[in-house]
Structures are given as structure tokens and as C-alpha cells.
Amino acid sequence: VSAGNGCGHTLLTPYSGTLSSKNYPGTYPNHTMCCWRLQAPPGTSLLLAFGDVDLEPSEHCAHSSLLLADPQTGTAYGPYCRNSVPSAPLLVTNSSTVTVLFNSTSHRSGRGLLLSYATSQHPGTGGASPGMQRHPWDVPDPPLTMCFSVYCPAGCKDIHGDIWGNPSQGYRDTSVLCKAAVHAGVIADELGGQVTLSREKGITLYESAFANGLHSKRGSLSEKRLVFHKVCCLLSLACDDVLEVVAFNASSWWHEVDALGQDRAWVAERAALSTTGHSWAAEPGAQAAWLELDLGTRRNVTGIITKGSSEQHDYYVTSYHVSSSRDGKNWRLYRGSSGQEDKVFEGNADSQGEVSNTFIPPIVARYVR
After folding, report:
1. What is the pLDDT of residues 40-57, one digit of tens each?
2. How far is CA 83 from CA 19, 64, 198, in A?
3. Environment class of 156 (CB within 10 Å of its CB; exposed 0-12, middle 13-18, buried 19+)
4. Whole-prediction pTM value?
5. Domains of the chain as residue ranges with CATH
6. Is the CB of residue 23 less than 8 Å from the CB of residue 112?
């Protein structure tokens, strides 16, 4: 939990999270405070990575400070500011509860703070140490093409920094690593997790893309690039195959009659991504319209790509829900990794570009709406 008027971007989960002061990385405001209470599952301990602590210096950090307290052992860490920085970039505690307190008085400069944390036994890593760097969103420097693994805490999607590239090409190695991992769909921002990637030879141009709620930038040549792997990269296995749709169905379709009196049917079958010309469209004014894909048999569905129709009309879908069914009768709305509420996927902003959204966890179903 967090409280106070000095809290910036914050995402706290039982196994990992990210937190920052207000306005980070801009100058933090005067006379503010924020208190974050980090609570890990019983029997685990918290590991905290100091990404950035830039608070205006003062004697004993009296004007602006960062203080961490372990109520279970009575241990305190800090206070920290620019002239009293943490002695190590990673703080390993022996407690499942830590209180993080930030406060400021009058000051002129300072970016504030950016921290992340994980537990000693977070899901999916077999209880191993998360191996967080000083900046878990930055890139270690292994030999070219060698696979390596990095732990990304929850909440990296909205941290400051740019990414260049896309999931198919890879990303410039100057990209914010964990933010790029969310864009690539290898982790869910709500949970974080271990990512496997390799550093490979750079390419001339990195094309931008909108995926999983993030825009990447179009960028030019870099010496190296980052390539994320959803399976063991040593085996060069792929899991991005396009699934065949046996049949399309829809709640309704638009029977268009143009100015010359010519008919055009925007039927469900025209919804295939590779279709040239106009696409599917629901009947004008239809409420709760849906498009249904029949995959023929139960399949493991890891994501979806959508595109609008620029054929004569500038049509596209800006947001949508996803439902799935194994028998075509009983339907379940997709709730995503948090499992708390029905997920709303961010769709297209124009009729030209493709937008990707990843299902974490995947859907096992024959029918998808």
C-alpha cells in the first residue's frame, strides 16, 4: 500500500513491484511525503534495488530523505540523499515487510527516487535470487548472441525511458529493457517475471509498433540489439505461429449500399487479417457487437493482432474485451494475469497499423470472441 501526496508511479504486488517519487525523473515537489508498505508472503524476504536516488543534499539528509525500516527486526536503512547514498545497489533484507518513507522540504534540484523490489522466492524462478541489477530496466553486457536471463519487477511499463523496435525485429540495445519486455509480450506488467533474451548484431532500421499498451519508436542503426525469447533460445524454437481460423461468425454485419446503389457486404469472413479490401463491420448502431473465431479444435492462443479497414472508410476498433469457449456454449471473459477484473485491450488508433496484444496467461479454447 502507499499513502501521501509525494507518491509517483507505483505498482506493488506480493512478489515484486516498482515505485517512484512524484514527477520522476523530473524534479520532485516541495513539502511532500510518501509512505510505501511492502508486504511479501510469509517465509520470504524482500530484495530492494535502488534504481535512482537523487535527493538534494543536506546535513544528515534533513531536507529531503529516503528512509527504509524493517519493523520485524527493528532495523533501519538510511536516511539517504545525494551526499549519503546507499552503500550497495541491492539491499537484501531478512524480512517480508519493509516500510519505505520519502519526504521533502524546500529544495531546488533532484530527480527523486526510483526503486524496485522482488522476493526471495518469486513465481517461476524456482526460488532462486532474482538477479536484479542496479537498474533492473537496464541491460547487462554478455557476449554477443549469448542468452542471458534478467528478472523484471512488476510496474516497468510506465517508468521513464524509450524503446526502439518491435517483437519480430528485436530492440535497440539502448532501449529500456523491462519496458521492452512488456512491449514484446514476454511478461505481464502487473506481475513482472524472469525474461530470457540475447544480444545480437544490430540492424539498419528498427520499425515502431504499438503492442500491449506501449508505443515503441522508430530508430536507426545500433551496434547491437536485444531479442526476447519465449522459449529456450538455444533451441531456436518459435511460438509465434499464426493459428488457422476454420470459420468466422459475428453478431451482425453491415450491408452497405454506396452512393451509386452498389451493394457491399462487410461479412464476418472478411475479418481475416490478410484479407484485401474491406473488412468485417457490425451493423451500424449495433450494441455489444462481437466477432467470433472458430479454430477447429482446442488451441493454445498466446495473443491477437488487430487492424482497421482503410478501404473507402477509416474504420478501426479502439478497445475490446476477449471471451473464449471450449464448446461454443459456455463463455468466459478474459481477466488477464491479475485475475481481478475483465481486461480491456487497447486496440487501434488508425486504420493502417497493426496492434498486438499478448495473452498472459494464454487462452486454451476452440472459440474466441
Report:
1. 999 899 999 999 999 999
2. 22, 11, 37
3. buried
4. 0.79
5. 2-120 (2.60.120.290), 147-229 (2.170.130.20), 247-368 (2.60.120.260)
6. yes
